[in-house]
C-alpha cells in the first residue's frame, strides 16, 4: 500500500463484539471505498445490524479498529460526534418524530447540529424531499403517509445532513411488498449519483444489480465477499449457497427449517 492510495470511507479491521458471554462479531474485516455500494447479506442473527451499529458508533466494539472518513473512531481521543455528523443512517423502523411535520423532521438536525438558518434548512430539506419524490408532502404529518413514504422521508432527512456515507439496515423489510419498489428506486438513484453506501438487505435482486460488492455474513463472521454477481450468482462457499437457496426459493425446505 502506498502513502497516497485513497483511504477507504470505511475500514473495519478484526472487529469483535460481545454481549456478555456471547460473541456476536468474531473478527470482521470490511472496507468500503468512496462511491462504492457494499451490500451485506446473511441470515437473521448473524450480526449484520451489530456491525452497522458499530460502524455508526452506536455500539462500542469489544476489540478491533474502525476507521471512518479517515478518522480512527476506535481511538478514544477522536471527536466521534463530528465524524458521526457525516454518516447518515436509515433503519428498518423509520424513527420519524410523529408530532413533527415531514419538513420539520428533515430540518431539526440541520438546525441543531449544523446550525443552519431556518431558510437554509428548509431549502435543503425541500430539495431532498423532491429527490425522494415527496416535495408535495412537506407539510403532512408522518402518520398521514404510507410506510414507504415515511421511509423515503427518513432517507431525505439523512441526506439533508450532507452525508459522506449512508448506512441502511434492512430499510424495506418493514414495508408492505407493494411499497418496497419506491424505496429501492430511491436507493438506486442515490447509488447512481455516486453515494457511498453500506446496505444490509434481504433484497437479493437489489444487491445484485446495485451492489458493487456483496458481503455474506454468518454467525458473526464474513464467510464470503466479492463482486455482487459472483457472490449471488456463483457463490464459492457452501454456506452462501444454502442461504441463497433459502431466500431465493422460499418453498425450498432446509432440514433446519
Ligand atoms: N444489545 C444486545 N444485547 C444482547 N444481545 C444482542 C444485542 N444486540 C444484538 N444481540 C444479539 O446479537 C446477535 C446478532 O444480532 P444482530 O446484529 O441483530 O443480527 P442480524 O442483524 O444479522 O439479524 C443476535 O443473537 C442478537 O440476539
Ligand atoms: Mg438486523
From TrEMBL:
Tagged with keyword Membrane: yes
Molecular function per GO: ATP binding
Position of the signal peptide: none
Domain ABC transporter: from-to ranges: 10-244
Family statement: Belongs to the ABC transporter superfamily.
Pfam families: ABC_tran
Compartment(s) of residence: Cell membrane
UniProt KW DNA repair keyword: no
Database matches in CDD domains: ABC_HisP_GlnQ
SUPFAM superfamilies per UniProt: P-loop containing nucleoside triphosphate hydrolases
Keyword annotations from UniProtKB, A to Z: Amino-acid transport, ATP-binding, Cell membrane, Membrane, Nucleotide-binding, Transport
Main location as per UniProt: membrane
PROSITE patterns xrefs: ABC_TRANSPORTER_1 (PS00211), ABC_TRANSPORTER_2 (PS50893)
Organism: Cellulomonas avistercoris
Name of this protein: Amino acid ABC transporter ATP-binding protein
Superkingdom of the organism of origin: Bacteria
Topology in the lipid bilayer: Peripheral membrane protein
Amino acid at each position: 500500500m502506498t502513502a497516497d492510495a485513497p483511504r477507504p470511507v470505511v475500514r473495519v479491521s478484526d472487529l469483535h463484539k460481545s454481549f456478555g458471554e456471547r460473541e456476536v462479531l468474531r473478527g470482521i474485516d470490511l472496507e468500503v471505498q468512496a462511491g462504492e455500494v457494499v451490500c451485506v447479506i446473511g441470515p437473521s442473527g448473524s450480526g449484520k445490524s451489530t456491525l452497522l451499529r458499530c460502524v455508526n458508533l452506536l455500539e462500542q466494539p469489544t476489540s478491533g479498529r474502525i476507521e471512518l472518513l479517515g478518522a480512527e473512531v476506535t481511538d478514544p481521543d477522536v471527536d466521534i460526534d463530528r465524524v458521526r455528523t457525516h454518516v447518515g443512517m436509515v433503519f428498518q423502523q423509520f424513527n420519524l418524530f410523529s408530532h413533527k411535520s415531514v419538513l420539520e423532521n428533515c430540518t431539526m438536525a440541520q438546525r441543531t447540529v449544523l446550525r443552519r438558518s431556518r431558510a437554509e434548512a428548509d431549502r435543503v430539506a425541500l430539495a431532498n424531499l423532491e429527490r425522494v419524490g415527496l416535495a408535495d408532502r412537506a407539510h403532512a404529518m408522518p402518520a398521514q403517509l404510507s410506510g414507504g413514504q415515511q421511509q423515503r422521508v427518513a432517507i431525505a432527512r439523512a441526506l439533508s445532513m450532507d452525508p459522506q456515507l449512508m448506512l441502511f439496515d434492512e430499510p424495506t423489510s418493514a414495508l408492505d411488498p407493494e411499497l418496497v419498489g419506491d424505496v429501492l428506486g430511491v436507493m438506486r438513484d442515490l447509488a447512481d449519483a455516486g453515494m457511498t453506501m453500506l446496505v444490509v438487505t434481504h433484497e437479493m435482486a437489489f444487491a445484485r444489480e446495485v451492489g458493487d460488492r456483496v458481503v455474506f455474513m454468518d454467525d458473526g463472521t464474513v464467510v464470503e465477499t466479492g463482486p455482487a454477481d459472483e457472490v449471488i450468482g456463483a457463490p464459492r462457499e457452501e454456506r452462501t449457497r444454502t442461504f441463497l437457496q433459502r431466500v431465493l426459493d422460499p418453498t425450498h425446505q432446509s432440514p433446519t427449517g
